[in-house]
Amino acid sequence: MIPMLAGLALFVASCSSVAHIEKDQTVNFNNYKTFTWIENDKESKQFLNDIQASNLQTAVSTELIKANWQESTTRPDVILKHEVMVEKTVRESRDPVYSRPHTNTLYNPYTRRYVNVYYPSRFLGYEENQYQANEGKITITMVDAKTDKVIWQGWTTEQINKDITTKDIKSGVKSIFKKFDEEKK
Description:
By secondary structure, the protein is an alpha/beta fold.
């Protein structure tokens, strides 16, 4: 039972996307409490429809509100921008290869008996495969409204089926803002 739970935990952990952040080390995030969104360029719009863009903004806004920030259209402290990109990549996988265990029957002429000899499975090496995959990248950028300077940027890249779904957006935003909360401490 315990090995099965450990395997399930490993599977769930491997499904979550890995987030990365870059932060201006001179910035104190306690000075920021309000944010607003700016309109994204055409390049990002080609990968998201209006519903997905709205869901992305809602997911980010929800995470910032949890961190005691407020959305404000008049004189915000931070301007938010999101970028989404989907591209085809070549992924590689390395799978271990083992021999099959087997038993061989040998004749011993000195004892005049047949003896079964068991040969266990042995590690033979790795089988390397390449396959095409779609990779979705979500980037969220925070810009100081007074100085127009980028103060924080978080992004995540995740393998997707064909298009980015709302589920992909929510899991990506959660993993990005998990890092945001860690950096604020």
